[in-house]
C-alpha cells in the first residue's frame, strides 16, 4: 500500500483540455501550455513517492483533492469545476508516467472526493485488491 499527501495547490486544468489545429489539411491535437505545466507539476510531485517497482494486479485508488478554501469553510465538499473524472484522468496519466503501475486500467476501484481546505493538496492512497 502507498499513502501520501502532496502539499501543492491542485491544478484546475484537466486532461480534457486538449486543443486542435489543422496542419496540411489534417487535424492535430496538442496540449496547451497550461496543461503541460499542470502535467509537469503533478509528475514532479508524484515522482518522489513512486514505488520501486510498478504495482501489479487490481488496484484501489483513493484521492482527496483539497482546494484552497478562500471564503469556503474548511472540509466542505467542492461542488464546482473541475469535474472529478477529468481531474482523475490527468492524475492517473501522471502516475502511469511515473511508474506507479503498468497501466491505469489496473485501477479497478476508485474513490474520489473534492474539498475546500485550509491546507491545499492531494491525498493519495493506492492499494492492491483481490
From TrEMBL:
Coiled coil: none annotated. InterPro entries: Endonuclease_RusA-like, RusA-like_sf. It comes from the Bacteria. GO terms for molecular function: magnesium ion binding. It comes from Holdemania filiformis. This is RusA family crossover junction endodeoxyribonuclease. Gene3D superfamilies: Holliday junction resolvase RusA. One of its GO terms (biological process) is DNA repair.
Amino acid at each position: 500500500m502507498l499513502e501520501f499527501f502532496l502539499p501543492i495547490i491542485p491544478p484546475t486544468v484537466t486532461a480534457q483540455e486538449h486543443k486542435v489545429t489543422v496542419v496540411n489539411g489534417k487535424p492535430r491535437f496538442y496540449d496547451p501550455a497550461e496543461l503541460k505545466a499542470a502535467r509537469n507539476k503533478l509528475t514532479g510531485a508524484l515522482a518522489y513517492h513512486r514505488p520501486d517497482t510498478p504495482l501489479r494486479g487490481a488496484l484501489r485508488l483513493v484521492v482527496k483533492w483539497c482546494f484552497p478554501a478562500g471564503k469556503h469553510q474548511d472540509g466542505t465538499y467542492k461542488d464546482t469545476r473541475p469535474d472529478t473524472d477529468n481531474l482523475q484522468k490527468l492524475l492517473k496519466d501522471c502516475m502511469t508516467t511515473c511508474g506507479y503501475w503498468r497501466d491505469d486500467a489496473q485501477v479497478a476501484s476508485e474513490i474520489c472526493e473534492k474539498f475546500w481546505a485550509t491546507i491545499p493538496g492531494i491525498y493519495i492512497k493506492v492499494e492492491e485488491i483481490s
